[in-house]
Amino acid sequence: MRKLMLLASVTLLALLPSLTAFAQDTKRVPALREQVYSQLARAQELADAGDVDAGLAALKNVESKLSSMNSYERAMLWNFYGYMYYGKDRIGEAITYFAKVVDEDPIPEALQQNTLFSLAQLSMGQGEYQHALTYLDRWQAIVGDENASKADVLRAQALYQKGDYQQALAPIKRAIAAAEAKGEVGDENWYVLQRALHYELEQPEQIAAILERMIKHFNKPEYWVQLAGVYGQLGQEKQQLAMLEAAYQQGFLEKGQDFQMLVQSYFFAGIPFKAGQVMEYALAQEILPADLRNLKLLAQSWIAARETDKAVDALERAAALSDDGELDAQRAQVLLNAERYSQAIVAAQQALKKGNLDKPGTMHLVIGMAELEQENYNPALQAFARAKAFEDARKAAAQWERFAASEKQQAERMKELVSS
């Protein structure tokens, strides 16, 4: 037979030995007579031996004498029915019979309390959340507010499932506070539930606060990453970066999106070298795909960090995946700034060949400037002349053309002076 896992079900398993105690805990409760007791005990023996159907048949025999039974005896009969149907995994029927237990009056208070709590738990398992709350209210009316913390988690869960998020906060907070007041830590799922409630209520500050406690108590990788994400939502970029960096150092970052968030945090915090390092690691370990988006972010990081070789390599890899020449154009600019003129010319020519550039005239300017720096005046002048054909570069091209022409004339005069 299936073992009973709910809290109140333990009472069912230990039922027969405690019958006398039940009878004594409330005044004016009629006695459980020996004849009924023995028949119920026989039914339980059959069920515990694995023959639940025989146990149910024995209970049917007891039920045939229902008119002669008192309220306590009837309650115990319904309790045994509920116990056996629960054992057969027929929860709906178990609930029906346990409900009949608490409808009997008078019965021992302990039996009433235990059964009401079992009904609340079973109703939760069946998705009958309002019924669970009703049974909890009836239970609390008996035990009083002092013992309400026993039901706080169950009440919060039921309210959460009903969508009553604001009402669910108070009981789960009480449960956690009660545990922490004793120097203990509540069950992890309690904190998860409180976090979920704040999420549903769109309360990022409170989400951050509960996640901070979850990290302290349970130190799970996902909580570090979640807290970093919440800090980002709150605009607390420094805290976000600190959290992500600490998680990375502890080996807590596992998903590609976590690494991407760290890279972006480093980049926007003005630490591009670390952004590049982390992105390169993530790509090398295949944590992130070497796609166009990630390679562009890698290139931007190395450009900002003034790591020319790494930037050029990343731009070249990214350009191979692009349908336009923009990344080759960016590579040409990086190479020009690094005074690698021959390579800048090649990259600019590749950008123009691939086409679909936002500012094609700029590439002719790059070629002209690179040629000019190498004192190749005629190719430079030709490039500036081509650049003048584009609106985006016309003004700058004219200025560079005049400068190049002047430099050419000066070079020619110097050559004539030397030769004479």
Automatic annotation (TrEMBL):
Keyword Secreted: no
Alphabetic keyword roster: Signal, TPR repeat
TPR repeat placement: 75-108
Signal peptide: 1-23
SUPFAM superfamilies: TPR-like
Matches recorded under InterPro entries: TPR-like_helical_dom_sf (IPR011990), TPR_rpt (IPR019734)
Superkingdom, taxonomy of origin: Bacteria
A UniProt-annotated Pfam family: TPR_16
The UniProt record lists the keyword Signal: yes
Protein name stated in the entry: Tetratricopeptide repeat protein
Species this protein is from: Pseudidiomarina sediminum
